[in-house]
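[recover] target loaded
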């Protein structure tokens, strides 16, 4: 893998991982049209770890408050920090179960660019109608187990390539009545255990593949993913708060239709 290709894939991963436009769809398209071979597993793990760092850096103050507040356990109903951790555990169950059961079958879909495009169009439709949701009033303490499960199922649904993880989790969080800023935060807090879990699962098979000749390229791609991911987090938070997700909806539908047209 060349340095240029590593940086390109890093930028694509960082930007599309958090913007609700599906990182899996864009990586599939870039690999197809730019002649980029499927990234090695070790490089993919580097990119995902970089996006995890972007979340930790962007929400560092919130996460630090959660950790500090967790020392004063008063039960999940009265302590926001405990409540968030409780909701994250509940919300992470669906993807932990489905991710293990369907991992091999889902990987086969990545080679079907038409199906990926259809899922991307579906993401756009969900964003368009989800952007119209107005009855959002629930804060941390008002968010219930059922809400966490629904959002967690949405995250599990996003293992399908073309379905945006950030998009569907934010939309279903709004559907459950979560306040817009809290919906975005919970969506990305929920990504932390998902990305960390996937990284740890793949780590034993990745370590033997690392060598000094490829490490430079991997680090370059990871740095690109980190900075572009941090930027995209700022963008999506601003767009959700101002009810402007429909712009991403138009983009997803348009791109999906263009790719479908080119392959029909």
């Amino acid at each position: 893998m060349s340095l240029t290709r590593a940086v390109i894939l890093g930028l694509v991963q960082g930007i599309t991982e958090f913007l609700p436009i599906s990182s899996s769809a864009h990586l599939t398209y870039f690999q197809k049209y730019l002649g980029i071979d499927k990234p090695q597993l070790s490089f993919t793990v580097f990119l995902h770890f970089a996006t995890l760092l972007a979340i930790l850096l962007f929400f560092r103050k919130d996460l630090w408050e959660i950790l500090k507040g967790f020392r004063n356990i008063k039960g999940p109903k009265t302590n926001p920090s405990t409540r968030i951790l409780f909701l994250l555990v509940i919300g992470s169950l669906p993807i932990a179960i489905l991710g293990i059961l369907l991992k091999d079958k889902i990987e086969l879909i990545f080679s079907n660019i038409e199906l990926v495009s259809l899922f991307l169009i579906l993401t756009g439709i969900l964003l368009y109608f989800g952007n119209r949701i107005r009855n959002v009033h629930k804060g941390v303490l008002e968010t219930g187990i059922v809400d966490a499960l629904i959002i967690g199922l949405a995250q599990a649904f996003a293992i399908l390539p073309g379905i945006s993880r950030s998009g569907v989790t934010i939309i279903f969080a709004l559907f459950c009545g979560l306040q817009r800023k809290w919906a975005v935060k919970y969506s990305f807090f929920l990504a932390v255990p998902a990305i960390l879990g996937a990284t740890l699962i793949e780590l034993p098979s990745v370590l033997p593949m690392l060598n000094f000749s490829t490490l430079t390229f991997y680090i370059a791609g990871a740095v690109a993913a980190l900075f572009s991911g941090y930027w995209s987090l700022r963008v999506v938070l601003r767009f959700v708060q101002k009810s402007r997700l429909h712009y991403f909806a138009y983009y997803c539908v348009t791109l999906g239709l263009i790719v479908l047209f080119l392959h029909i």
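[recover] notes: The two ends are 31 Å apart (CA to CA).
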